[in-house]
Specification:
single chain, 3-stranded antiparallel sheet, two-stranded antiparallel sheet, 7 helices, 19% strand
């Protein structure tokens, strides 16, 4: 199929994460053997939340192709925990907030929010999840009751093309400010273009 392992020292049979690249097209594929790296002290236990996910998997049609994927409840939890993992290790981007908010907007009625909260609390991720939804609704203009297609054109442009100026996000816990950070949102389209260029140069 033209794909080759990007790092020749990686053993595809034993490595948790394997990256492939098609040098002809620049197509990049990153394969993870599980949703979170087993044995990781910080996030290894997250996999237990998805032990039965295959029994709950659903079929969705993407560009005319049927794809088996996580059920909405599992998918939203995974997006939150995946962003939480990056937050713990190195930080996460506004794009991941958009993914979470858009997933919640599209599948709100199908989500058992009490169960989602219970799962997040059990993994010490509840405050993080609440902060993500707060950033999405207060700073990025999302309305969890409004589908993306019904958002104002200005909000759609912001999601797709980014914001021209950085903005400040303040984190609070127990009513007290814990820290604040200035963030810049580049937009989905510029991020995809950058990722494509990076994969092309690696080939």
């Amino acid at each position: 199929n033209g794909l080759r392992v990007m790092n020749p020292q990686t053993d595809p049979d034993t490595a948790f994460e394997v990256s492939y690249l098609d040098p002809r097209t620049g197509f990049y594929l990153e394969v993870h053997k599980s949703l979170f790296e087993p044995g990781s002290g910080a996030v290894g236990d997250f996999n237990a939340c998805f032990e039965d996910c295959f029994s709950r998997a659903v079929w969705q049609t993407v560009e005319g192709v049927s794809v088996r994927t996580l059920a909405p409840q599992d998918h939203l939890l995974y997006l939150i925990l995946h962003a939480f993992k990056h937050f713990i290790h190195s930080g996460f981007g506004i794009r991941q907030i958009c993914d979470i908010i858009l997933m919640a907007e599209a599948n709100g009625p199908a989500i058992d929010w009490a169960e989602l909260l219970r799962r997040c609390e059990s993994l010490h991720a509840a405050v993080f999840a609440a902060s993500v939804f707060k950033i999405g609704t207060e700073h990025l203009g999302f309305d969890l009751k409004t589908p993306f297609k019904d958002l104002p054109e200005e909000a759609k442009r912001a999601v797709l093309s980014g914001l021209p100026e950085p903005f400040e996000v303040v984190f609070r816990r127990g009513g007290k400010e814990t820290f604040r950070v200035e963030v810049r949102y580049e937009g989905v389209i510029p991020w995809l273009e950058k990722r494509y260029q990076e994969s092309d140069s690696e080939g």
